[in-house]
Every structure is written in C-alpha cells, then in structure tokens.
C-alpha cells in the first residue's frame, strides 16, 4: 500500500490545516510551570464577568512572544492558524483575544505584585527541575540614563533619580536593579527600583518577601548571601524571625570589624589560597595583604 504524499494531503479540500510550531513548546512550559493557575490565584478578577481568566490571557501573551511577537491589537490574528482549543480549552476563539482584554489583564497584573508572582513561577520551575535553593545570592546594580524623561514638577518620574552610582557616573541620574539568584545563577526574584534606593532597605524587602513565599522548612535549608549593606539590626532580626541563615561581611561602621582586622594583621597566620580571581591581573594573597597594609599605613 502506498502512503499518501504531503502534496496529496494538502490537496484534500476537506482538510483544515493548523500549525503548532514553537508555540506548542510555550504551551507545554506554561502548563508544566502551572503559570495560568498561579496567575489566576494572584490576580483579582470576577469569574462571572470575565470570559477569559487572567491566566489564560497571560498564557496567550507568552505564546505570542514565543511564536510571533506581534503587538496587542494583532494577537488574535496571529492565532488564526493555530488550534486555540489546544492552548486555551473549549469555547475560546481567536476573536476572544482582543487588545481590550489584554489591557484589562495587564492593569490587574501590575496591581498584583508582579515580583511576587515571578517568584512563585520561579519556585515552580526550580521544583519541577529538581534544582536546589540552598544559597540565594542577592545584589543590586545601577544603570545610568541620559536625556529627558516623562514627569512634571508636581508628578516627577519616580524611577529616575540621583543616587550612589555603581558604574561611577555620579553626574547622571539612574535607575537601580536588584536580582536574587539561586546557586546555579537561576533568577528567583528581580526588581526595577528608583535610582536612590538604599541597598539596606531593598535587602529588607527581599527578606520579608522570602519569608512570605518560602515555607519554614525551605527557610531553614536556605542561606541568604549578600554584601555588607544587608547587615542592619532590623534585617538581622527579620532573618532570625524567618529562620533564614545568612552570609555577609560585617560593615566597617561596626567597631568590632576594625578590631578583627587588626587582630588578623597582628597574628599573621594566613593561608595562601592563590589568586583571588581568574583575571590575568588578579592579585595573589601576598600582594593583597601588602596593598591593605599600605592603605592602613597611609590612613594612620
């Protein structure tokens, strides 16, 4: 028996050909991560008044990014050759995917703590792929900006502000970005912050969010790793209440920090660990010690 050729199949008038394409992969990922369910739980909506749930609309946006990257008002057209029943369930047609409905969803999503929703999805992904979360690394960086930005004297742009510039452009305004990753570098939490945000305050907000979204057992198994800006009385108490271990460096504002450094110099019992980084110009421990001693001698 001869198998029909592709040209023969396409020529059949009673066949309605639909493509899956890469959107099928996006559909499988959304379902595996339980993205629609998480969105529906976190975004306020009324089932009696909404034909499509926030989770369904969010999934449509994700699939559009995977397959088409079309603007909101063209998304319904981009799904015309797709099997919408496969992606969104029975009764959902392409003309249900209107820009008004996407605008409705985005307004409610913005009001529902997007950073918290992202963290729930990230935790779902880590659980699905059996990735560990023994260590959470957090830090911020500044992004300098130029030019004019929207806002008035009465209602200034809340993100663009002057602050401590980590890229050494104190002459420019900036925004801040904060990121928390697990030990493999996979993101768990991220924020876009006003340019004058304090690392101390941001770390406090992150710790409180972790205490909210992680179980007590997860907190006990996790170590929060941050620089010395994290170490404040309030933040350490919040860590203790959440049962979160932490690793940081004691800030120089604490007197005991200087005492410990002086004690280390006087005892001079150092273990040579070689280069401190992989760069060709990286210092070895002996050179690092000599530079610090020179700095202390100059300061005194």
From TrEMBL:
Domain DUF4277: 16-122
Pfam families per the UniProt record, alphabetical: DUF4277 (PF14104)
The protein's name: Uncharacterized protein DUF4277
Organism: Heliophilum fasciatum
Phylogenetic classification of the source organism: Bacteria, Bacillati, Bacillota, Clostridia, Eubacteriales
């Amino acid at each position: 028996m001869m198998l029909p050729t592709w040209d023969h199949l396409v020529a059949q008038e009673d066949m309605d050909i639909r493509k899956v394409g890469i959107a099928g992969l996006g559909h499988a990922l959304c379902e595996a991560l339980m993205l629609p369910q998480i969105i529906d739980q976190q975004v306020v909506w009324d089932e009696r008044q909404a034909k499509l749930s926030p989770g369904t609309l969010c999934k449509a946006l994700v699939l559009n990014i995977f397959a088409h990257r079309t603007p909101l008002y063209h998304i319904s057209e981009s799904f015309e050759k797709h099997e919408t029943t496969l992606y969104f369930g029975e009764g959902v047609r392409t003309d249900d995917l209107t820009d008004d409905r996407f605008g409705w969803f985005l307004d409610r999503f913005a009001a529902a703590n997007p950073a918290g929703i992202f963290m729930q999805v990230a935790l779902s992904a880590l659980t699905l792929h059996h990735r560990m979360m023994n260590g959470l690394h957090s830090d911020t960086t500044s992004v300098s900006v130029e030019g004019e930005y929207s806002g008035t004297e009465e209602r200034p742009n809340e993100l663009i502000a002057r602050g401590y510039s980590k890229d050494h452009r104190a002459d420019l305004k900036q925004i801040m970005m904060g990121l928390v990753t697990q030990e493999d570098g996979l993101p768990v939490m991220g924020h876009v912050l006003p340019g004058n945000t304090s690392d101390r305050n941001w770390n406090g907000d992150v710790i409180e969010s972790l205490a909210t979204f992680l179980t007590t057992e997860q907190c006990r198994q996790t170590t929060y790793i941050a620089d010395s800006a994290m170490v404040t009385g309030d933040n350490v108490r919040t860590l203790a209440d959440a049962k979160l271990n932490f690793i940081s460096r004691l800030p120089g504002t604490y007197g005991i920090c200087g005492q410990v450094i002086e004690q280390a110099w006087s005892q001079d019992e150092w273990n040579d660990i070689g280069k401190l980084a992989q760069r060709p110009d990286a210092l070895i421990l002996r050179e690092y010690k000599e530079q610090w001693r020179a700095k202390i001698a100059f300061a005194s």
